[in-house]
Amino acid sequence: MARPASLTHALKDAGLAAAVAALLALPMLGFRLADTATGLELETRLSWVPIAAAAVFAGRLLLNLAGPLLARWADKSLAGKPKLATGSKRRPLIIGLVLAGAAILLPLSPFGDRNILDKATLVLIYVMLGWGLNIVVGLAGLLVLGYVAFYAVGAYSYALLSQAFGLTFWQCLPIAGVMAALFGLLVGFPVLRLRGDYLAIVTLGFGEIVRVILLNWASITGGPNGISGIPRPTFFGLPMAANSPGHTTFAQFFGIPFSPVQRITFLYYVILALALLTNLISLRIRRLPVGRAWEALREDEIACRSLGINPTTTKLSAFALGTLFAGFAGCFFATRQGFISPESFTFLESALILAIVVLGGLGSQTGVVLAAVLLVGLPEWFRDLQQYRMVAFGGAMVLIMLWRPKGLLAERAPTISLNKGRG
Amino acid sequence: MGNAPLLSVENLTMRFGGLVAINDLSMTARQSEITAIIGPNGAGKTTFFNCLTGFYKPTHGRITMTPPEGGSLPLHAMQGFRIAKQARVARTFQNIRLFAGMTVLENLMVAQHNKLMKASAFSLAGLLGLKSYRRAEDDAVEKARQWLARIGLESQADLPAGSLPYGAQRRLEIARAMCTDPVLLCLDEPAAGLNPRESQELNDLLLDIRRQNGIGLLLIEHDMSVVMRISDHVVVLDYGARIADGRPEQVRQDPAVIRAYLGADEDEPLPAVIARDLGEA
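^ Those are the sequences you sent over. The predicted structure of the assembly is below.
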C-alpha cells in the first residue's frame, strides 16, 4: 500500500475488491430468512449487493489513493521515532500517573454517573486481564489462546467456595488467584516445551476443555444454568445493601441514605485497586532479573540456555503470575455479576483479551488501557448501533493494524540504563 | 604447558541415524590455554560444541569437566542450562544469538541472571526493593560496565543490541558469555565475517581474556591467521575423527592435516598459494 499507486492500478485494485465484495455479499446480504405469519420465508434483496460492491469500490479506491499519504503521515507523527525511547524516560510515568489519577477521581467527577461507572468497571476488568496476559504474551512471548480458562477458574472458585463454605469475597480473592495459578502450572508444565503455534493450539484446547467441563459437570457447577446468588463484597465487613438482617450495612454505619450507586462505586474502586496492583507488579517485575529473563526467552531461548537460565521454570513463573491475575479478575467478575455461567468464558473472550494485548502493542502497559477502552468501552457506548456494532469493531481493528501494525504503543522502554541508573 | 586439565573428552561419538558426526574423539583442554579446533566444513566441529554444551546428548563417550576449585562434573549427562550454570561452560554461536531487541546493557544483565536471581531472593527481595538486591544489581551493572569498556562499547550501552555493527555484535556476544563467570569459554567461529582490523582486535581480546581471567578457551575457527597466532594447542577434525593434535607449528606441518584440507596425495607438492598461506600464518 505504501508504494505510489497509479490511478489505473488503483482502479483495477478497487475493481477486484468490489468483485470479491459482490461475491461475498450475494449469499450474505442478498438473501435473508424472514419470519412471516406462515413460517420462514426466503426474502431476496439483491439491490443490497451492488450497494455493498460500490461501497467497497469507493473505500478501496480512497485507500489506494490516500494510503501512501496516510502512511507517510503516520511515519512522521508516530512510527518515525526510534524504537527505544531513551530521551523521554519520565513521560510514560507521567502519563500513567495522570491516567491513574483520572481513574481514581472519576466517581467524584460530574461524569461519574451510574452508567459510566458500570461501563468503566467492565473496561477495567479487561484492562486487568490484558495486563495479566501481557506478562505471558508480551513479556515471555508465550502465545496463549485459552487465557479465559484461568479467568473461569477464578470465577468458579469464588462462586463454589462461597456457596459451599460461605466464604466471603475477600477470603476467596487470594484462593481464587492461587487456584488459577495452580491450574496454570498444571497446564504449563507439560505444555511449555512447545513453541509458538503449538502452544497456542494446546492452550486453545485447554480453554475449551474447561468450558465444556463447566457445562457438563452439572452436579457441581450447575451446568448451563450456572451459579447465581454469588455474594457481593463487603466494605471491611459492612455489606453494601439497603438492609441486611443481622448486619450493620455500609449506609447505616456511616449514617447516610442507601443508594445503589454506592455499591457500583465500591465495585469500581475494588477493580481499580486490583488492576493497579497488577500494573504495579508487572512494571516492577519487568525490571527484575526474572522479568529480563522472560524477555530474553522471548528473543532467543537457545541463547538463554547457554547462559544458564532454566527455560522451564522461567516460563512457568511467567505463566503462574499471568494466570494468578486472571484468577483475581475472575473472582471479581463473579462477585460483580452475582451470576456466572460457562457462557461468559467462551473462546471469544480469550480472543478479545489477546486482541487488547496485541492491538495495544505487545508489552506496553498504557497500550493495553487504550486498546481495552477501544475494544470494550466503545462497543458498550455504541450499543445503539445494534448489529453494525461488530462491523465497526472489525473496522477499527483493521484500521489499527493498517496504521499501527506493531500495536498502538509499540515502544519498548529499557529496563535499566547505564548512564541514568535504574530505568 | 604445565596447566591443569579443565575439560577431558573420552571416546566421544555422536550419531544422527546412520551419519557419524563425531567418531571416537578424545581430547583435553587446559586451564589458561587457548585450544583451537579446526577442520574442513562438516568435520563435526559445531556438533562437538553442541555435545559439550548440552544441546545434543552424545551417543557414546564421556565429557568431564574438572573446575579449578576441584571436583568433576559429567557434562554428557547434564542438561544444557545446568552445564552453563554449574559447570560454568559459556559459549557463543556461529550465527550470533544476541537478544536483539534488548539493549546492550540488558544483554549483559541477563547473562548474570543466576547470580541476580539469588540476590533478589527469587524476585521477593526485588519486588520489595530491598537494599541487598539493589547492591547486587549495582555490582552487576558495574561488571557489565567493565566489560563494555573492555570491548569498547560503553557509549552504546543503551542501544538495542540488534542495531550494532556486525563486529561489535560478535564482541558483545563474547562479553555476554564472559559475564556468566565461566571457567571454560567456547567460541564458535568468532572471527567469521570480521575484517582484518576487527580480527586483530579479537585476537587481542581473546589473549587478554586468557591472561587476565585465567580461564580455558575452546575455539572453532576457519581463519588460520587467528588460529595460528593465538592458540596454544590445535586439534584437527576430519569426518568426525581427530586426525592431529599438538602445537600450532606441529599441526601445520602434519601431512594428514594438509591432506584433509586439500584432498591431495601426501607426496604431491602443495600449490604455491596454499603453501604460502600456511607458511605466513
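Residues 6 and 70 of chain B are 10 Å apart (CA to CA). The mean pLDDT of chain B is 86.

Shout if you want it in another format.
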